[in-house]
Each structure stands twice: as structure tokens, then as C-alpha cells.
Amino acid sequence: MPQPAEEVSGEIDVSSEPVQEKYAGEKFQITIDDTTFTIEPVAGYNGSFLVVGKKYYYGSPEDKLVPLDLCVVWGKLAEPENLKHITFSIQAGRWCSFSYSGEMVLEGSYIDSHFANIHAIPATENILKALKSVEKKEKIYLEGFLVNIYHGERCLLRTSLTREDTGSGACEIFYVIKVVIGNAIYQ
User: Fold this and answer.
1) CA 89 to CA 128: how far, in whole Å?
2) What is the pLDDT of residues 89-135, one digit of tens each?
């Protein structure tokens, strides 16, 4: 089980937009199973989200570097009366998609800009354990950096820097340094 660093009070509010700030930090390297990856931070990023899907990956060094996908929503999309019409799924190939039925109050463009597939890179083993413990329909707060990942000179994954994009390349590659689940802070 993950070990909380400290406790906070109050409920996580998923009504606000994630915060992204330009950041040009130093690149750093992570080696997994004799494979070295270069991580390039390109933006500070934090937000409160409702988890609507989660998938764990293991096996290859790339899967061990980015072991989790979290399909998350926020804003009006996280409200129960809007979620009852939408089904989310994480599929092979690290895709998260949604379908809806019944009458939708929200426009498709709003849904697209308030739903994300986060490819999570936990900064510590404790953060990995915390992220693995997250349940569907649970509210979480994440803090860290949006990053690009390189192997040698080749860019393996490039993060999205906007919430308005969709399709291939629209995922946030998120190096997570802090997680809040319930009242517990994990680092």
C-alpha cells in the first residue's frame, strides 16, 4: 500500500480547469532494464480530475516507464447528470474513447476539451502504488510536468500541450510528482 506523506482536509473539487504553465526544465534520464530514456519537461501541470478509466501496463521497458493510463474528466463533464449518458473505455494501443446515448446537454467540443487520457510516469514507487490504488469514479489531484520522452535521438512520446486536441498525439504525458486521493497526499 502507498504511504501518505501528509493529510489534507476538504473534498477534491473537479470543477476547475487544469493549470498548465510554460516550463523549460533540465532534461533527465531514467534507465529501466538497460534501456535509457531521456525525459524533457515542457510544462508544469496540475489539476483535479474524476477518474473514469484506468489501465495498467507491464512488460517492456516503455511500459515500465509509463505504467498507467488514466482516463479522466473535469468541469461539467464530471457532474453525475452528464456522466450518466457517457461510457468511457481504455483500449489496446493506449487509446481512451467515449460513446454516449440519450440526450446530451453538453456539446461534443466541450466533452473533447474536458476529457483526457493521461499517460502517467510516476516519479516514485510510492506514487506508482497510489496511482494503482485509484478506483474508477474516484476524485484525484495530480501535480507534475508534461514531458516528451526520447530514446536516443528518437522521440517516443510527445505530450499534448492543449486540451482541445483529439486523436493520435492528444494524450498528456505526465511525470507525476504529487498525488492526492481522498485526504491523503502521496509523494
Assistant:
1) 21
2) 887 678 888 888 877 788 888 998 999 999 999 999 999 999 999 99
